[in-house]
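One thing: mind reviewing this one?
=====
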Amino acid sequence: MTYLKREDITSLNRMLIDSSGGYYNSLNSNLLKPNSFNWLIQYVKEKHFGIKRLKSVFEVASAYCFFIINDHIFNDGNKRTGTATALFFLEKNGYLLKDKVMDSDLEKLALSVGSKKSDLKYISQWFKKRTVKK
């Protein structure tokens, strides 16, 4: 499994803010909660007694999405960045969204996560059902 680097995620946030607007603080890569961000980077790779906590690419993608959105890691663009990070991670690991998935579907997912209506298991299943192996 190929995990994302800090720079991958902060670059996605910057790109999304630049393209669709929002507040960006360049002094700290737009991080509002750097400790939460550092925790997430480690959490997705974490092992307990040699066994990965998150076993599938879909579980890891859901963790990126869920914690970026709900922990409000960035000053702005958390829903966009959480969703884009999950998709970028899946793509790096050989998965693409199915053609029938629309931007509005991704927006609904992000809003559902942000309103705490979707948990990690639901998000993982959402990505699993809507992606295809390259």
About this structure: The radius of gyration is 14 Å. The mean pLDDT is 96.
